[in-house]
Amino acid sequence: MQPYIESKDVIHDGSALRARMREYGYLFIRDLLPRDDVLHVRREIMEICEDFGWLREKTDPMDGLTDHAPVREGDDAWRPMYARLQTLESFHRLKLHPNVNNLMDAYFEEPSFALPMTIARIAFPRDNENGTAPHQDWIYVRGSMDTVSCWGTLGDVPPEIGGLKLLAGSHKAGLLSTVPSPGPGGNMVSVDPELEWHQSDYRAGDLLMFTPLTVHAAADNHTPDTLRASIDFRYAGQSHTISSTWLEPHYHWLGDEFSWDVLDRDWHDSPTARYWERLPQVKARPPGKMPRV
User: Fold this and answer.
1) Other C-beta atoms within 10 Å of 243: how many?
2) What is the CATH number of domain 8-43+88-285?
């Protein structure tokens, strides 16, 4: 396992950013988001987990300590927690921070666009067989092949808690065939044994960016009692075409509790609410049949 090559030194140089993305299939930016903003979102999410009984009693919610049996994404017990999480305006606002937006403007060399769908993963320890298997994002993202996936932890994640890992250079193999897999996304690809996995420890505020063809997966959580919380979202240039699916909330296919009319009804004129409707016309097209992200 190799540590990520860091790219904060070129965040204002679009040509250098794209050159590194072409070479490695990813960009890793330390401390891009304000740490306090990320930890604020973490606290709100951990307090929701506490309300649902997922955290160990009489512990600091910020520590994310659990003695609860794993609750897997899609379980009946997971759904009400996730619906409440998706109502957090601060969670959706994080991807719109000027530090991220300015980086994406430089990368695309044009005004950029944060796709509205924002995804959280709450990963339990002792549940590694149901983690996110190696996959490419393209089958879920569609739209422009230049769409960038972004992933960050909601809190500090040392190696023993795991995090996202990826195969540097794997995007050069093109689109790979998939087979069904347990865990989020439900699909996996074969891993090229000649390529090296890259992974580093994560700090609250770090951001990992990668292409739709870069193979990535969740590293195992080797702790006995610590939840891992993360956020992921996508960006494209405003001239690019996206899949219309990404204008909807995550898990919108489950019902009204995952609709914007429900999720943003208490945001009280926040600029986060329906921000894409105030942009120049967004180019979106139906994606055709595709798996659930």
Assistant:
1) 22
2) 2.60.120.620
Q: How far apart are CA 193 and CA 3, in angstroms?
A: 18
Question: How many residues are given for the chain?
Answer: 293
- The number of CA neighbours under 13 Å toward the Cβ of 74 is 10
CA 115 – CA 107 distance, rounded (Å)? 16
Q: Radius of gyration over alpha carbons of the chain, in Å?
A: 18
Please give the model's pTM, rounded to 2 decimal places.
0.96
pLDDT tens sequence across 217-248: 999 888 999 999 999 999 999 999 999 999 99
Predicted confidence (pLDDT) per residue in 151-205, tens digit:
999 999 999 998 999 999 999 999 999 999 888 888 999 999 999 999 999 999 9
- Written as six digits, the tokens of 28 are 């890793």
Q: How many Cβ atoms are within 10 Å of 188's Cβ, its own excluded?
A: 20
Single-letter code of the amino acid located at 269: D
Instruction: Confirm if 225 and 66 have CB atoms less than 8 A apart.
Output: yes
Contact assessment for residue 164 and residue 151, using Cβ atoms and an 8 Å cutoff: yes
